[in-house]
Amino acid sequence: MNQALLSLETASPGHICPFDQACSYLEQAAKELRMDQGLLEVMSHPRKVVTVSIPVKLDNGQVQVLAGHRVQHCDVLGPYKGGTRYHPAVTLREISALAMLMTWKCALVGIPYGGAKGGIAIDPARYSVGELERITRRYTSELIKDIGPSVDIPAPDVGTSAREMAWMMDTYSMNVGHAVPGVVTGKPISIGGSRGREMATGRGVMIIVREALAERGETLAGAKIVIQGFGNVGGAAAVLLDEAGAKVMAVSDVSGGIFNPEGLDIQALKVYAAENNRRIAGFPGSVPVSNAELLALPCDVLIPAALENQITEDNVHEVQAKFVAEAANGPVTLAADLALEARGVTVLPDILANAGGVVVSYLEWVQGLSYVFWDEERVNREMEGLMVHAYHEVIKQSKMRQVPLRVAAYTLGVGRVAQALSDRGLYP
Ligand code: GLU
Predict the structure, then answer these.
(1) 361 lines ligand 1 (CB under 6 A)
(2) Whose CA is nearest to atom 8 of ligand 1?
(3) Ligand 1 in contact with 73 (CB < 6 A)?
């Protein structure tokens, strides 16, 4: 496949390239849809790839120059939309894959956006708040012509939060001369953020898991859950699943994993993490587990909520869950996905399972554009409606085409984008 725009970086041998994987899923959907080759060719390429230098003065007076990316995959259905990731493993290929995923995700849940993603290869824990602010502001300023409320709307992703969105919003607004809250979503409520946005991705995961269990006549009450990650997504999913009566037996973060076969006290764990520099290791009443052990725990639902490529060809045979709910983007590799499928493990695909975040981003944008702000109950209700609807569409599609849920979800998302592209026609 011609990846001209990504020629800055070649895939490293032996490494599972997220962009190649994303293209494989796209090709699979295209085959299922008997899609025109030309359309597939268009959809396989990001429309725009921007890489900028970010010179930043560190607290010690030295200047460091970082590279920042923003990849805009497709805007046929509306403005580009997607998060901004700060993580040391960020590469242009990864960001390009994640941008493509956003296109299918937005189309799948029926919100009028295209797909994009941004990122800087840094470990935010190694920078002071002041340094992070300078990095974020310079990054935003370099992208000033490429983003905007009807052009491309960033949001939080791994390593960023409402704080970074506030800096982005302020930088953009100062540059154009007036307040533009709609340029980002996931911002603080004080400047036009939406109630419910912080918990939204985790809430969406809970809803999809609940619907999937219901399909088999089961409920969340007493369901055994294992979550890899305890950040914005994994932490919120843990809280909401626990509230719904599920037994969250194990969770993990960078400090390690913790396990209690009787279920962890998630409320107490939240307090413990807040008091311990957001680390969960050593939580009373739990035993430590390694990341590998955590992924291999017998459970009803395994929820990888950290990064991509966690369940691979090498460890997939150890997975002992009935369901794998992809709260992260791309946590199950293509090979592992096929192996799980063959073993009858249902994978709830990322573009469905973690879409709650971008759905509430959309609701935030809608509230901002209409200058009417809703209470949290309404936000949650609207989001739940879109998520449940998308879930049932995926199930229907899966039954109709006799394909796994991921292929069904892709077929819906890719199919809608393909339809829009062919209705609009190729310019000029
Ligand atoms: N970063 C989130 C995702 O991967 C949210 C994106 C958004 O809200 O725009 O879906």
Answers:
(1) yes
(2) 358
(3) no
With b for 16 or more beta-carbon neighbours within 10 A and e for fewer, the 256-293 pattern comes to ebbbbeeebbbeebbebbeeeeeebbebeebebbeeee
Q: How far apart are CA 96 and CA 334, in angstroms?
A: 17
**Which stretches in the chain have pLDDT values below 70?**
1-14
Measured in Å, residue 350 CA sits from the centre of ligand 1 at 11
Of all atoms in ligand 1, which is nearest to the CA of residue 158? 1
CA of 266 to the centre of ligand 1 (A): 25
pLDDT digits (tens, 9 = 90+) for 56-99: 999 999 999 999 999 999 999 999 999 999 999 999 999 999 99
Q: What is the pLDDT of residue 255?
A: 87
Q: Which residues are catalytic?
A: 117
Mutational test site, ligand 1, from 70, 72, 80, 102, max ligand atoms within 8 Å of CB: 102
Using left for φ > 0, alpha for ψ between -120 and 50, and beta otherwise, residue 250 falls in: beta
Residue with tokens 């000033």: 144
Domains of the chain and any CATH numbers: 3-9+17-29+36-182 (3.40.50.10860), 200-353 (3.40.50.720)
- What's the confidence (pLDDT) of residue 12? 58
| Placement of tokens 């969960």 in the chain | 280
Ligand 1 centroid distance, CA of 59 (Å): 31
Conformational region of residue 292, where left means phi above 0, alpha means psi within -120 to 50, and beta covers everything else: alpha
Ligand 1: residue of 84, 361, 362, 383 to mutate (most ligand atoms within 8 A of CB) is 361
What is the spatial distance between Cα 197 and Cα 75, in angstroms, rounded to a whole number?
A: 23
* Ligand 1, atom nearest to 329 Cα: 4
Short-list 34, 36, 45, CA closest to 1: 45
Give the Cα separation of 371 and 386 in Å (integer).
22
Report residue 223 as tokens.
């369901």
Whether 182 is in the pocket of ligand 1, judged by its Cβ within 6 Å, is no
Question: Which residues touch 339 (CB under 8 Å, ≥6 apart)?
Answer: 313, 316, 317
pLDDT tens-digit profile of 290-335? Answer: 999 999 999 999 999 999 999 999 999 999 999 999 999 999 999 9
